[in-house]
Amino acid sequence: MNIHDLREAQVRYENRKEEVLNSREELYQLRSAFVRYFNRNKIANMQIDDYVAGVDLPQNGFNFCYGLERQLDGLGRIIGATAFKFGVYYGRTRSDENYEYRFTQKFGSTYQEAFQNVKSAILQLLISGENENIDEIVRNPISPMFKGKILSTYFPKRYLNVFSNDHLNFFLTQFDLDTVDLIKSDPVYKREALIAFKDQDPVTKNWSIDLFSNFLYSEYPGRPPRENQDTDDDPLADYRAPDFPVNPVPTFIDLNILPTTARETITRRGNGKTDYEKKARQNKKLGDRGEKIVMDLEKSRLAKAGRNDLANKVERVSLTSDSYGYDIASFDEDGTERYIEVKATRSNVGVANFFFTANELRTAQETKNYYIYMVYLVTTEEPKVWAIKNPFNPENENAIKTPINYRVTINAESTTK
User: Fold this and answer.
1) Is-above-0.70 flag for pTM?
2) Is there a contact between 219 and 200 (Cβ–Cβ < 8 Å)?
3) Which of 347, 383, 394, 412 is deepest in the core (most CB within 10 A)?
C-alpha cells in the first residue's frame, strides 16, 4: 500500500466530503423508507409478488428485490448477476421463453416452497446481522451478493456495501491485506477485513461505511481496471493503482553480479528526458507491493526453517518511518538480525536498476547483514526475488552508483537595510 497516495486521496476526499454527503442524501432517505416498509413483520407476511423481480411494480411501497437491486443501486451494485441470486424470481431463461416463477433448487422443490424458505433465510439473516454473528451470516443460504446488499441496507453503520468478489479482492490487494486464507474465504470475511482497515486508519475511522465505500471507488485505490483495458492512450495510466494479482507466489533466485566490462549497455530511449518525479511515484507503488511480497516471503522462509518464533517478529518498519534506511527487519535462521531494503520492478530477471537514497546508502555502508531484495516481475503471479548481499559494505566495484540529484543549500539575507 502506498501510504502517501492514500493520504493525498484522503485530503481530496475530505475537501469534498460534504458535497458527497449532500449528493447521497436522497439515497439515504430512500433506504430508510425501504427498511421501514419492509420491516420484519412485513417480510414474514409478504406475498410472492411483493418479493420477486420481474412482476409489475406496486403503486405504493416497494418490491423487495427490485428495490434492493435497482432503486438502491447507488448504495452498492448487485446488477449483473443473474436473477437466481434472489432464490425466486419471475421471468424467462435462455432455454425457455415462457414467463413464470422460477427458483433455485437449494431452497425447495417448488417455487412456493422456495419462497417460504427464502423468507425464512432473510429473517434469520437480519437476526444474525443484528447480533453481528459473522459465522451465522456466512452459513446463511442467501446468495453472497444479495446477502451483502441486505445487510448493508438494514445495518448501514455495520456492514460494507461492496459486493463483487473481484472488487473485494482488488481492494484487499491494494491495501496489502491479501493473504491466502482471506482471498479463499467467503466475501463476508473480506468485507470484515476492509472494515477493520477502515476503523484502524486515523482518517477513515471517522467516516461512515458508505463514505468509505464511495472513497474506495472514487478516490483510492479507485474502481478496479476492466479486463483488456487499453492504456496506451490513457494519460492517467501511470497514475492509476497497478493491477496486482492476489496471492502471488514469489520465489528466491540466485544471480551473479557481472563485472562492469561484461554488462550490457543500457540504451536510452525516446528523447532522453526522464520525468524523475513521475518515475519516483511509479517506483513507490511497485516498491510498496514488493515490500508486501518480501514480508510474506521472509516469514515463509523462517517458518520453513522451523523458526516460527522469528517469523512472527519480522517487521515492515517502512510503514512507520522512512528514516531507518531499510524497509524490513528480519532475521537469519540463527537469530541474527537481517536488514532488508526492497526494490521492485515490472521487468524480467536481469539488470538490477534502482534508485537508492543517501540515507539508504549510508545505512548500507554502516550496517552489518544488510541486504537489497530485488523483486522482479512484481505485477505478475510469480515474482522472482534476488537477495543481494550488501554491495556497499564492503564496496563492490561492479555496483555502479550514478548521482541523479543534489540537495542544495544557499544562505541568504535581505538586501534592504
Assistant:
1) yes
2) no
3) 383
